[in-house]
């Protein structure tokens, strides 16, 4: 590349940077919003003792012995850190169960002994299955049951296993995706829609350098985004960094390039803002839901896992989580990095072939 070309590229990139920083809303959504989201979700899912399970005891069963419901409620309430019990009529208890206000309903045994103590719960709710086990253990212990073998319980804290540790790499990947598609794709179509791209094309500028300036702009933003989020996560929540920091920077750089390429591809033919906005949402929504930004992608059925694992955001987030939380090296990340590389080659190749300069 000649000195004249380098000068053109430098000025084009500086122009894009100046345009970006003159828009307060763009700066907020790129830098401020991820930090606020990290704070909000980090506080919401902060480390704290688990809430006691909510249990309703039926107190109007005609077959139960007098005072049986109150005795069960007292036995459950004897360990307030484990369970919170209320006595309710059968109909009210079932309504509370269906509304999610309690996790399990306990029906006292009949006075004659024909009907044992009964638990009502929805097995599709994981919290209900746990609540049934806790309630039964407490009541069995109150009845005099003893464990067959002695046990000891120890607790430990493992940074890296918390929700905020899981969340931060997902938010970084989500931000790289959003910035690449909206910051490149949407802006290019806006220039085309406002007839401003014709003015650039009419200058002695090389067309390839114009597109390359958008990619370089994304890399410059990455130098601000990544350290800001990593430093904030470490200082505010103690998010660990167990892997190689240079490798993490390389992974994020590759992801930024991939989504910049997707932005170019989305903008290659779109003529108006409504079209490009729809295309960007069509590209980002499935990945936001399925790629493991806020919850593990493994929650989806096995039948769709090959498709989910092939998505670029899934590969990016998996690679960053493995590096940050597990200390994975380059050899361990060969598969997700290969997926990202393939997406980058396809997107950039298709974008350069299909890109339309005029509206």
List keywords for this structure.
5% strand; mainly alpha; single chain; 2 domains; D-Maltodextrin-Binding Protein, domain 2; four-stranded mixed β-sheet; 359 residues
Short description:
The protein folds into two domains: 3-45 and 162-354, no CATH class; 53-142, D-Maltodextrin-Binding Protein, domain 2 (3-Layer(aba) Sandwich).
Description of the molecule:
The protein contains 13 helices and four strands. The chain has helices spanning 3-21, 24-44, 68-77, 90-98, 126-142, 163-193, 196-201, 207-237, 245-267, 273-290, 305-309, 312-326, 334-354; strands at 53-58, 83-88, 104-107, 118-120. A four-stranded mixed beta sheet has the order 2-1-3-4. By secondary structure, the protein is mostly helical. The two termini are 29 Å apart. It folds into two domains: 3-45 and 162-354, no CATH class; 53-142, Periplasmic binding protein-like II (D-Maltodextrin-Binding Protein, domain 2, 3-Layer(aba) Sandwich), CATH 3.40.190.10.
């Amino acid at each position: 590349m000649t000195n004249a070309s380098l000068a053109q590229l430098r000025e084009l990139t500086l122009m894009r940077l100046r345009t970006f920083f003159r828009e307060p809303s763009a700066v907020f959504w790129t830098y401020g919003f991820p930090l606020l989201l990290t704070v909000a979700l980090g506080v919401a899912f902060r480390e704290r003792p688990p809430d006691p399970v909510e249990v309703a005891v039926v107190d109007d069963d005609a077959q139960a012995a007098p005072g049986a419901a109150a005795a069960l409620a007292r036995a459950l309430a004897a360990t307030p850190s484990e369970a919170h019990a209320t006595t309710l009529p059968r109909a009210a208890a079932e309504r509370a169960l269906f509304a999610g206000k309690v996790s399990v309903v306990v029906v006292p045994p009949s006075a004659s002994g024909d009907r044992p103590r009964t638990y009502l719960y929805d097995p599709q709710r994981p919290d209900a299955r746990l609540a049934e086990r806790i309630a039964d253990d407490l009541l069995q212990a109150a009845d005099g049951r003893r464990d067959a073998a002695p046990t000891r319980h120890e607790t430990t804290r493992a940074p890296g296993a918390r929700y905020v540790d899981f969340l931060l790499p997902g938010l970084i990947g989500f931000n790289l995706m959003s910035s690449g598609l909206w910051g490149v794709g949407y802006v290019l179509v806006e220039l085309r829609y406002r007839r401003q791209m014709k003015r650039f094309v009419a200058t002695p500028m090389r067309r390839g350098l114009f597109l390359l300036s958008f990619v370089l702009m994304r890399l410059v933003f990455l130098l601000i985004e990544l350290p800001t989020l990593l430093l904030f996560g470490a200082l505010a929540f103690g998010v660990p960094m167990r892997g190689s920091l240079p490798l993490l920077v390389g992974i994020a750089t590759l992801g930024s390039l991939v989504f910049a390429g997707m932005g170019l591809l989305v903008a290659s033919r779109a003529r108006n803002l409504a079209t490009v906005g729809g295309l960007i949402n069509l590209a980002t929504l499935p990945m936001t839901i399925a790629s493991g930004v806020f919850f593990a992608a493994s929650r989806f059925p096995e039948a769709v896992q090959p498709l989910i694992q092939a998505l670029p955001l899934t590969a990016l987030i998996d690679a960053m989580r493995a590096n940050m939380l597990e200390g994975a090296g380059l050899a361990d990340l060969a598969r997700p990095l290969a997926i990202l590389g393939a997406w980058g080659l396809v997107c950039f190749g298709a974008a350069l072939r299909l890109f339309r300069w005029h509206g």
